[in-house]
Amino acid sequence: MKDNDTYDLSWDEWDELQRPAPETTQFDEVVEAAISRRGFLSGIVAYGSGAAVMGTGLLNSTSAEAQTAGRFAFTPIPIQTDGTVHVPDGYTWESVAKWGQPLFSDAEELSQETGVSVGSSDRVFGENTDGMEAFVVGNRQVIAVNHEYVNTKVNLPASEGETTSADDVLTLQNMQGVTVMEVADGPDGWDIVVDSDLNRRITHNTPMTMAGPAAGHPLLQTSADPAGTTALGTMNNCGAGKTPWGTYLTCEENFNGYFGSSDPAFEPPEGYGRYGIGMEGRYGYERFDERFDVSQNPNEPHRFGYIVEIDPTDPTSTPIKHTALGRFKHENAAAVIAPDGRVVVYMGDDERGEFMYKYVSNEPYTPGGKTSELLDDGQLYVAKFSNDLTGEWVALTPEATGMDEAEIAIFSRVAASNVGATTMDRPEWVAVNPVSVEGYCCLTNNRNRGVKPNAGGDDTSVNGPNPRAENNYGQIVRWYPSNDDHAADTFTWDLYVMAGNPTVHDDAYGGSSNVNEGNLFNSPDGMMFDSTGLVWIQTDGNDGNEGDFAGMGNNQMLAGDPATGQIERFLTGPKGSEVTGLTWSADRRTMFVGIQHPAAPFPDGEGMLPRSTLIAVRRDDGGLVG
Ligand code: FEO
Ligand code: CA
Ligand code: CA
Ligand code: CA
Q: What is the distance in A from the centroid of ligand 1 to the CA of 81?
C-alpha cells in the first residue's frame, strides 16, 4: 500500500483533498430509469433520440465471433496486487530509465539515503514519468518524456520533505519538467545514451517563448519580463503529443498548485478562483523563489496552463508556449491533419466539470511550409454534447464569448462556460484513431457529478456522455466528426466503454456490455492508438481491489479493438502505481510504458526505493507490438 509517511500524495489525491466531499450521494432518477446494465441500449432512449448510445461495433462484442476472433497478439493476463510489472506470456519487460538515473556522466545517481544533489538534479532523469513521444533523429532514437510532480520526502531527505532553502526549491524544480534523451537498444537491452548531444533537461526554470494571442498581453507581464513574451519553465507536465512536423507537445496540468502568497492579506485577482490558484503552494516555492509568490508577482500564474512545443532534435532550441491552444489544466494533445491540410489538436481539461476542446489552424500544414506558427493562428473550440448523440464544436470567438482573443486564450475556461459547453467527468487523454476518422477521450471519474457544483463549471447534473452521478469508474467517449473531417463543427458520439463492476452492481455501475469479469478496470486515463488502430488504455484509479473495486487489482494497461469493443488486459503495474505514458520504437517492436509513483520497491526489489520508471516491453519472438 501507498505509505504516505514516505510518499507524497499523487496529484489526483491532492486534487481530491482540495475539494469538499459530497454531502450525499444521489443517483439521478432519470439515469436510474434509463440505464440498467442489461437495459442500457433501450434505456438510453429515455433521454436520447432513439439511437443507441453505444457504437454499433460494441454490440458485436458480445458475439462469440468477436470473443474468439480478436485482433490481440497476446493472451490476456489476470489482475495482480503485487509490487512489480506483469506482461503476457511471450513478452518481457525491462527498465529503460529510472527517477534519478544520470543522463550525463558528471551527474550523480539518486541515492535512497540522500536523494539527488542540487548540482545533479537537472542532469538526471526526473521523477514521476508521464506522457512521452519517440522521435527519430538521423539514425538515432530520442524519447521526450514528462516528469509531472515530485515526492518531497525522498528528494529532500535531510529536511524530511520540508523546503528550507532556495537550493531545496531548485532541486524540486529540476526534478520536474521534461527529459529529452537518446535511447539505444544494446546488448543489455534499451538504455539511456549517457552524454548524447541530444540529451536535455527542461525544468521549471528553462526560458520559453510565449506565442499566440496572449503573448505580450498585460496579464502576462511581470517585473522580470515586462514585455510578457518570455516565461521561465513548464510545470506539472502531464500528457503529451506530437506535431505533424516532428516536435513534442508537453501539457501543463495542475500548475495552480505551485503558487502561494507571503502576504496573508493579498487579495486574489479575478481569474484565480476558476483555476484553483490558492495562497499556499504545495511545495513552498513561494517562500524561497519570489516568482512563485503571487503577492509579489500576481501575473506569474497566467504564464502557465498552456501547451508547450519542444524541438527534440535541437537541444539549444527555445520551447514555445502556444497560448492559442488555451489555458486550462491541459492533460494531453492529440494532433491530426484534416482533409484540407489544417492541423487539428484535441485536448482535455482534467478537472471535474470542465471541458473538452479542439484547436484548428487557419492555414494548412504542407511539408516544407509553416510549422510551429500554425499553432499560433487558428480557432479554439469547445465541445457541446447533446443527448440525442449529436454534438458541436462551439468556436470561442469574441462574439460568442464576450471576451477578446487574448482573454479567451488566458481564461479559456470562462470563455467555454460562456458558450454553455458540456461539463465532463474529468477529461484525461484524448486520442485519434489513425485508421478511422474518430476521436476518443478518457473521462476518468467524478464522484461528485449531480451532487454539488464544483469550483468551476456548472457541474450539477448528469448529461449524455457523463451519465452517472457517483462516477467511481469512468468512461471513454468517442466522437465521429461529420463528413469524416476532424475540422468539422459537428459530430455524432457514443460511449466506447463505461467502466464498472458487474460482479458488484447490476445497474449502470456494472459498466457497459464490453466490461466483464476478465477485464475489470477503473479510471481510464492514459490512452494512445498504435499504428494498426488498437487503442491502448492506461488506468490511474483505486487499486484497493475491494468493494466497488473488487477484482480490478493494480492499475493496468489494456488494449481495445475499436471495431468490436473488445478490451483485454495486457499489463499490470506495481502496487500504488499509475500506468501512464506510451510510445513505440521506430521499428514498432518495442513499446515504452511509464510506471508512475509505485509504492512497492519497483523496479529494483526488496529494500530498494520505489522509483518511477520508464520501461520497455517487447515480444520474445521479436514480433511487432503495435
Ligand atoms: Fe496528470 Fe490528469 O493527469
Ligand atoms: Ca498522476
Ligand atoms: Ca493523467
Ligand atoms: Ca488521473
A: 23
